[in-house]
């Protein structure tokens, strides 16, 4: 089986960097490395089974087909993605305590 493609949008890259920095400052570098590893493993899982996440209905038509899945080991963090040909597009990686809907408004 070929490896599925994972496309990380710039906003998702920023989300991951900011969360890792916060985790490193509050819990140490090892925790930040675990966060990155968990993100990568969860994205690989999603890429292999794109229908695994919960569909999210948004008013913004640009977000059609967006799904959400909790990050393994960091279940407060939500990965928002869209299935694409041969993989997934990661749109955002957001802590569940944030006002998620406002982050996706046009």
Describe the structure in your own words.
With 106 residues, the chain is an alpha+beta fold. It has one domain: RelE-like (YaeB-like fold, 2-Layer Sandwich). It contains three helices and five strands, in the order E-H-H-E-E-E-E-H. The protein has helices at 10-27, 29-48, 100-103, and strands spanning 5-8, 54-55, 67-71, 74-84, 87-95. A five-stranded mixed sheet has the order 1-5-4-3-2. Strand 4 and strand 5 (87-95) form a beta hairpin. Helix 1 (10-27) packs antiparallel against helix 2 (29-48). The longest helix is centred in the middle third of the chain and has 20 residues, at 29-48. The protein starts with a strand and ends with a helix.
Helix content: 25-40%
CATH topology assignment: YaeB-like fold
Strands of the widest sheet, in order across it, are 1-5-4-3-2
Low-pLDDT sequence parts: none
Which outline best applies? Answer: globular
Helix and strand pattern: EHHEEEEH
The CATH architecture would be 2-Layer Sandwich
Classified by CATH, the class is Alpha Beta
Supply the helix-strand structural class: alpha+beta
Question: What's the N-to-C terminus distance?
Answer: 38 Å
Q: Give me the CATH superfamily.
A: RelE-like
Strand content: 25-35%
Q: Brief description of this entry?
A:
With 106 residues, the chain is α+β, with helices and mostly antiparallel strands. Helix content is 40%, strand content 29%.
